[in-house]
Amino acid sequence: MADAEPTTDRTSTFYWVCAALCLVVTLFLAADISKSNSQYGAVAWAGAALAAVLMLGLTALYVACATGRLQLRRPVTGTLTLFHVSTLCVVAAVGADILIPARDTGSLALLLPWGITYWLYNLKPAEPTS
Question: Is 2 in a helix, a strand, or coil?
Answer without folding.
Answer: coil
